[in-house]
Design brief:
- The protein is built from 13 helices and eleven strands.
- The protein is α/β, with parallel strands linked by helices.
- It has a single domain, classed as 3-Layer(aba) Sandwich (D-Maltodextrin-Binding Protein, domain 2).
- Helix 7 links the parallel strand 6 and strand 7.
């Protein structure tokens, strides 16, 4: 039997050396889930992210977007991320706090008075700290998208003082800060999946709900509500997260593509959310069935919910809450 020639051996070696490169360049499909309807800034940002990733990878990375809770509600998607059966999700602050409780503290009463104020905190040390705390939960933070400063709608009465919320059946997300906030003002809170909220309002299961204007509009909640009150009671972020299992499968070059696309998509979503309030207020004012009001002062609401801050400072992550409390008004 003849030994392999030098030419054959060199050819085999070159082929083996090329194999890792070939595998690294193989097409890859990634799935991104969220719960928002068409036209919502979250939905638009997901589409934008997929487009950017495709362009930056020359079509090799294909992000398939599962919108409007097609891949399950937020809690279901979080479980899927942690087991690696879902690659990415633009999720929600409340549900994600089920695995990282301190995240809910971002929604404590009247913490941020404007969106840029919130972005400054999330883009700084606070956001970096929370991102590190997510990693042991099998999630990589790609960006802090925005779910806006939230308002209240209901079918009972305009909300001008905290007493107007007394006894009102109000849907909140699965977010302990929101629950504590409204219970402190006497509301009867219920947790209902966002995808089921329209029907719950329509059938009178609850009297009202709270959300940013973008969510109220894109999910047409205004169709089954009579009063819109600008309570500005809390802020919510939308963490854009990737499964650590998926992250580990990506090459360093692909990780850079994902990170760069996430930065662009996050900035795009924030811009849409920032611009939406003024635009949507004009749309809501055209609706003859919807009464719009702004409380004469938010001071009574802040006073009624100050105890929530006190109680949260007693939690295991009380130091984190104290650091947030110190940022108010700065």
């Amino acid at each position: 039997m003849k030994s392999p020639t030098r030419r054959v051996m060199l050819g085999l070696a070159a082929g083996l050396m090329a194999m890792p490169f070939a595998f690294a360049q193989a097409p890859m499909k990634l799935t991104l889930g969220h719960n928002a309807g068409p036209g919502n800034p979250k939905a638009e940002a997901a589409i934008k992210f997929a487009e950017i990733v495709k362009a930056k990878s020359n079509g090799r990375l294909n992000v398939q977007v599962g919108a409007a809770a097609q891949l399950g509600d937020d809690l279901t998607m979080i479980s899927a991320l942690r087991t690696g059966t879902l690659d990415m999700s633009i999720n929600s602050q409340g549900p994600l706090s089920s695995v990282l409780p301190e995240l809910a503290a971002l929604g404590l009463p009247f913490l941020f008075s404007s969106l840029p104020e919130a972005w400054k905190v999330l883009d700084g040390a606070v956001g970096q700290d929370l991102a590190k705390r997510l990693e042991p939960k099998n999630m990589i933070l790609l960006g802090w998208m925005d779910n806006g400063i939230r308002q209240t709608t209901n079918n009972k009465r305009p909300v001008n003082v905290p007493a107007d919320l007394q006894g009102m059946k109000l849907r909140t997300p699965a977010d302990p800060a929101t629950v504590d906030l409204f219970q402190a003002m006497g509301a009867l809170t219920q947790q209902i999946n966002f995808g089921e909220l329209y029907v719950a309002l329509q059938q009178g299961v609850v009297d009202g709900q709270e959300n940013p204007l973008a969510n109220i509009y894109s999910s047409k909640l205004y169709e089954v509500q009579k009063f819109l009150s600008f309570t500005n009671h809390k802020y919510e972020c939308m963490p854009f997260v990737m499964s650590s299992i998926t992250w580990a499968r990506l090459s360093p070059a692909d990780r850079e593509i994902i990170k760069a696309a996430a930065v662009e998509a996050t900035a795009y979503e924030r811009k849409l959310m920032f611009e939406s309030d003024e635009k949507l207020l004009g749309e809501f004012k055209k609706m003859s069935h919807l009464a719009i009001n702004t409380p004469p002062s938010l001071a009574p609401f802040k006073a009624a919910t100050e105890k929530v801050w006190d109680d949260w400072e007693k939690k295991p992550f009380g130091d984190f809450v104290k650091s947030l409390r110190a940022t108010r008004g700065k």
